[in-house]
Amino acid sequence: MNSGKKIPKENVIQNISILRKSGFFENFSKFSDKEIFEQLHSNRIDDYSKIFDKKYDPGMELDEFDLACIDKRKMIYLDLESDVCAENNVYVDVIKMFSNLSNGSFNPQNISEKWQSPSGPITVEFELNNEIIKFNPKYSDDWLDSIVFEICKEKIKANKTRIVECLGESKYGYGQNIAFMRITETEQNNLENNYKYKFRE
């Protein structure tokens, strides 16, 4: 992840090229690496301008990890301390993230999250292939229960889609954050060779 060092444009474009070899930015398949850079930059300007309600350019000094995080269909990166509470439907959002990540192999319907009190019990439920999937995450202030990851990954794996946890260059991962990627073994090898990333299935 970007440590604050200035990253030259050519390095960012090179990382786009490497990530594409691992299936990232599939929706830009007809674009050159430089065109993808320009499109991502334009998208970032639009997104940040909406946030600040005025024209704002956040730049494109992104390292390979920050670039990968842009592609929500290939990667999920989130903070386990996610403001989990009765009003926020965070488990619903996470399940939708995995559905988006799965490339169509995991299509849950009628997702619901019900709290019996501000501290639980919590019941999360969704329909999948005419089956009702129900589980009860443990309440832990505003932290996610990892059971939601395990259930989503299990259902996606059943459809022969490979989801792995990316640990970055350290076997300890990203502290209280967690990263999942949808990648084949060949795509994973590309990231291991170019970025020394470690993974856990």
Reconstruct the topology from this structure.
Blueprint: H1 9-20, H2 33-52, H3 64-70, E1 75-79, H4 90-101, E2 109-115, E3 122-128, E4 131-135, H5 147-157, E5 163-168, E6 177-182, H6 185-195, E7 198-200
Antiparallel strand pairs: 1-6, 2-3, 3-4, 5-6, 5-7
Helix pairs in contact: 1-2, 4-5
Biggest beta-sheet profile: 4 strands, antiparallel
From N to C, what is the helix and strand string?
HHHEHEEEHEEHE
Estimate percent helicity: 25-40%
- The rough form would be described as globular
Total helical segments: 6
The residue-averaged pLDDT reads 95
Which tags fit this structure?
alpha+beta; three-stranded antiparallel sheet; four-stranded antiparallel sheet; 6 helices; single chain; 201 residues
Condensed summary:
With 201 residues, the chain is α+β, with helices and mostly antiparallel strands.
What can you tell me about this protein's structure?
With about 200 residues, the protein is an alpha+beta fold. The protein contains six helices and seven strands. The strands form two sheets. It has a four-stranded antiparallel β-sheet, sandwiched between helices. Strands 2-3-4 form a three-stranded antiparallel β-sheet, covered by helices on one side. α1 packs across α2 and α4 runs parallel beside α5.
